[in-house]
Amino acid sequence: MPTNNTPFLTIFLLFLGLLRFDSFPGLEAATGKLASVPGLYVFGDSLVDAGNNNHLPISISKANYPHNGVDFPNKKPTGRFCNGKNAADAIAEKFGLPLPPPYLSLRGLLKREKRKSAAVTGVNFASGGAGIFNSTDQKLGQGIPLSEQVNNWLSIHEELMKLEPSEAQIHLSKSLFTVVIGSNDLFDYFGKFELRQQSKPEEYTKLMADKLKEQLKRIHESGARRFLIIGVAQIGCTPGKRAKNSTIHECDEEANLSCSLYNEALVKMLQQLKQELQGSMTYTYFDNYKSLHDIISNPARYGFADVTSACCGNGKLNADLPCLPLAKLCSDRTKYLFWDRYGHPTEAAARTIVDLMLTDDSHYSSPITLTQLVST
Q1: Helices 288-297 and 347-357, axial angle in degrees (round to 10)
Q2: How many degrees, rounded to 5, is the angle at CA 106 between CA 100 and CA 112?
Q3: Which PANTHER family match (predicted)?
Q4: DSSP secondary-structure letter at 322?
Q5: CB of 374 within 8 A of CB of 176?
């Protein structure tokens, strides 16, 4: 073990421990603040990509150009598929953590110290176009599938293992591992005739859940114990899907049905996985399908005026083209649910969804809420 790396990480983690570990029982109840977590590690697709795809040489699934980032600090397009910060950023802010940097931004000798620091507070491994299956990103170009994201996590895990074993174990057990993935696998299923020939929706979505289980077990084996698993939303209600219905712009219910089937398979898989791991894994499943349904059904309640159109785009529902520099941009991003034709949420929508994750009401979360998860 390299002794020159140990003091920095050890002191840094001990400092975080004083601030964030359960040194003061009952602090949440006494102050009304969230119980905190020492690190946030994010896996997923473009819904939470913080710029990993910027570092891929041939990927066209990037968002490192305007109007993306128009509401990010300094109006910077960072590679987030959003006008500002995404849901992973909002979660980090809720727990008082730095925004988890994209893993691929931490490579190289000049990034060594930044990599050490991020290894402790959190890293974002998500990639636009990524899926549970390795083949999902073939249509758009180059992405980082979930299995490779987990490989990248194991690289960061090596940094943490330079700590004393007991310190590393505590850190990993208290950190939050967030997984937001599955939409691209479903888009892939509807976009490829051969996939629909090979398996029925029920079979395909079960395969998705089984494949995800393999990767969750790999993360768990590295010492992770707390998981936030976010279900697939109503991909049939994205502006792009609605615009294909040329008359009344209703949702694509066939696509939505597959989302429901996958979420059902996901819930069953998580229950089985927890049993297999004999309770060493704790998790909260957030029903993103229901949350989006409720926002679309009663937008005014959540502060939105438009839940069908894209804020950035062109044509019908502003959804005929992607959010490109010459696209039409809505004037008030806080009133739009969707940022672009693909259904990426605006920053306002992402923050609304994260607020629903953190509500004490178990309406959207099971078997426990996110607040309960981080307080255990």
Answers
A1: 120
A2: 115
A3: ANTHER-SPECIFIC PROLINE-RICH PROTEIN APG, GDSL LIPASE/ACYLHYDROLASE FAMILY PROTEIN (AFU_ORTHOLOGUE AFUA_4G14700)
A4: -
A5: yes
**Averaged pLDDT, 206-229:** 98
Antiparallel, parallel or unpaired: β 365-366 and 282-286:
antiparallel
246 is known as an active-site residue: no
DSSP letters along 191-223, please?
Answer: H-HHHHHH--HHHHHHHHHHHHHHHHHHHHHTT
Q: Note if 362 is an active site residue.
A: no
Other residues' Cβ atoms within 10 Å of the Cβ of residue 297: 9
The answer, yes or no, to whether residue 218 has pLDDT greater than 80, is yes
Tokens standing for residue 210: 């089984």
pLDDT of residue 10: 41
- 283 Cβ contact partners less than 8 Å away, ≥ 6 residues apart: 226, 227, 228, 229, 270, 274, 373
Whether the CB-CB separation of 223 and 163 falls below 8 Å is answered with no
Cβ-based burial of 279 (10 A; exposed 0-12, middle 13-18, buried ≥19):
exposed
Pairing of strands 176-180, 328-329: unpaired
DSSP H or E run through 294? helix 288-297
Q: At what angle do helices 288-297 and 253-276 cross, to 10 degrees?
A: 140
Report the run of H or E that residue 9 belongs to, with start and end: helix 6-20
- Bridge partners of residue 329, in order along the sequence: 312
Residue showing tokens 């009344």: 248
* 54 pLDDT higher than 90: yes
Q: Which two tokens stand for residue 3?
A: 């002794």
365 pairs with which residues across the strands? 286
Pairing of strands 328-329, 312-313: antiparallel
Residue 46 falls in the annotated catalytic set: yes
- Find the catalytic residue in 36, 46, 183, 309: 46
Q: Indicate which residue of 183, 188, 344, 365 is catalytic.
A: 344
Non-local (6+) Cβ contacts of 315 within 8 A are 243, 321
Which one, of 130, 128, 122, lies nearest residue 106 by Cα? 122
Catalytic residue among 36, 185, 340, 365: 340
Give the type of residue at 160. L
pLDDT tens, residue by residue, 150-209: 999 999 999 999 878 889 999 999 999 999 999 999 999 988 888 888 999 999 999 999
